[in-house]
Write a structure and sequence with these properties.
The chain is α+β, with helices and mostly antiparallel strands and 848 residues long. The chain is 41% helix and 21% strand. The protein has 28 helices and 28 strands. A six-stranded antiparallel sheet has the order 8-7-6-11-10-9. A hairpin with a 5-residue loop joins strand 15 and strand 16. Helix 1 (18-43) packs antiparallel against helix 2 (50-73). The longest helix has 47 residues, at 457-503. The relative contact order is 0.04.
Amino acid sequence: MSGQAVRSLDREPERQDGGAFGGLALLTPVVVVLAFSTAALALLSSASTQPVVLTLMAVLAAFGTFFLLGLVAGHVQLSERTSEAAARRELIEHTAEGLILVGPSGSMLTANRSARRLLGVNAFGEVRSLEEVLAGNPRGLEALFRLTRAVERGETAAEDVRLSEGAGNGGAPVWLRITAKPIESASVAEAAGGTALWSLADISADRARDRRRLAGIEARLATFEAMPVGVFSVDPGGSVVSLNGRLAGWLGYGEAASPELALRDLVAGDGAALLAHAGHDGGEASAPIGLDLLTEDGRLWPATLLVERRLAPGESGAFTAVVLAGRDALAPEPAGAEPEAPLTHHMQSAPFGIATIGADGCIVSANGAFNRLMIETASTAAQGALDVLARTAGGETREAIATALGEALAGKANIAPVEIDIALEAGDMVTRRLFLAPLTGARGRRRGAIAYLIDVTEQKALEVKFAQAQKMEAVGKLAGGIAHDFNNVLTAIIGFSDLLLGTHRPSDPAYRNIRNIRTSADRAAELVGQLLAFSRRQTLRPEVIRLSDVVSDNAAMLNRLLGEKIELKITNGRDLWHVKADKSQIGQVVINLAVNARDAMPSGGQLVIRTRNVTERESQRLKGEGMTVGEYVLIEAEDTGTGMPPEVLAKIFEPFFTTKGVGKGTGLGLSTVYGIVKQTGGFIYADSTPGKGTTFRVYIPRHEPTAEETAEQATAARKERQRDLTGTGRVLVVEDEDAVRTFAIEALKRQGYEVLSAGDGEEALEIMAACDHRVDLVVSDVIMPEMDGPTLMKELRKVNPDLKFIFVSGYPDDAFKHALDPKADFTFLPKPYSLAQIAAKVKEQMGR
């Protein structure tokens, strides 16, 4: 910005159209004389005067016309006025802020009075440029350079620049805030190409005030750091925002350190909850509180705190605490010295709630655990203990607390504890157990009562789970016993139905009735299987499988079950791991989940079934829900149905629980799924949102197949292709149920075997002795009177160690394996079984 001559705006404002005003003043007397002359001549009636009068009137009319035209054009004005440009110049000239108009070449075009005062004039009487003023001021010149570049870019910018020392009043430094703003002006000839408006504001007074304020803050900080007590402040989020050097040194952080700490990093145990409630009734400091603080290396450091809150009553948030202690608090005690800390100090660090109650029934003091367990309870004694402890309790609980408190204040011992259920804002329930005891002073004088508060929420939850487990175990035993007896009946029904179907043609009138009997027996067998699955007593035939194959094999059936309104989408993960499970039972799990989803989507929707691998790291996230860490394969069934509320979701795996109407469901579907998954060693979880849908996740443990298992799979595939069930050999059938024994004998005879039979183990020994033990295979029930199946096998193998054995039972094989040698060779056929199943099992064993 060059310092050439600048036009000054400091002069009197111009009078616009001054010449017009002067001419009008000279013409006015002439017009008046002409007007009077014309009037005088008009009074004369002489004919000789008429031409003169007409001439004068014409002259006056001309003057009037020119006057009106001048008035309209603005050349003639009836009063004086200042021009708009002159008014703007006056306004700019008397503005307190200095204004400079700079041309595109950087030359100063004009400057107002404040700018001339702030910048001064040079020896030639011209306003000094900013370059001249800031000469010798490197920082000022840098700021000027940045402002110039900003204007060139078409931007507005501002910089605070400090002038030389002593330029202001009293020798104080002068600070200017310089603002540069590009503008476009077409009315200034010198501004062709763009101009900039530079403004100068004197901010020296503001800077002086800031210096004084900063000096005051520094002085207070110095006092804060040098105080003989510790001080720290906490914000509403629980973070320590300040910590003076004295306290930092006491706690081992170093006096100059300012570590990033949370309140729980400074206060041990439940002290944080206690401090959050201290001084709760207004902004006054609380009573002294004895607490253990934490040093930098994790040691306890006894201290006494005074807490002052900085928010309105009832709000939890920021506070400042004064710590009363000395440097020698960390000094080791002499050997053999007794602990000097009072018992009340150690009470603050107790993991359970402790509170003292005065003789008037008000809480006198309470430790941090008491406040935390009571949820939003004040630590000081402005309220009666009954109101504090029973704030969320019901009527009966309030009466129990009042009775127990009255007994404690009366000095009675052995007061029964009171359980208090508290409803949290999130909807959860917590349970506290309150113990009250009298508090006595010197000479046995009663001084009030002491309250102990324990969190028993987890204990109560475990009690409920234990009771539920006992109920489930009892139902499971009952279901297992019923299933065993029912399986014997179903074996006979299914077996004889198969025999009758083999002797009737489809065209026979009785064939359809026999088929209906067989179908009903199959449905009954499925129900028994569900009972056994729920009680985890069903017989599983585990094999090495891939879950993707199970889902794909059942896809056609799933589509039929879901119907046309529900879209089925199956997504199988790549390279799924193997699992070892009963393929038919896992298929039943998928089917039951699909049926459950269908019932939740009566108006249609979508069911997505996914399979994928679950890594050990991912399973760690479910460790808190009881899942064992490991590798799993996941089956996930997600529907878009009605969803379930939390109270229903908590009961879905319970037996006989159903939300369907009477006669529309057994309530065993999901309990069966749960039993199958648990018996397989897996886990199942459900998430549901009302109105959005439900997702079931089934986790089956990963299995690494051995070489023997791989070979068995290939052998099983070959045997599946072999449908010829006939054979030869001698078979002994041992069964105490006459109907089942009769069916088994006839079924095996039809396949070509020679069959011997016995009603129990003792009779079987006699028959074997009579035929000199010349029997190829024994098919024996497990549970029989006199002698059971495992005992019979031991006796027979004393004579013939290679005798082949097939056990049949309505119970799983795990129920009797413990009674046998772990190396004992036998196979197992669960009841109920069909003709084809017993024939296939016998042929399989005969071919070994």
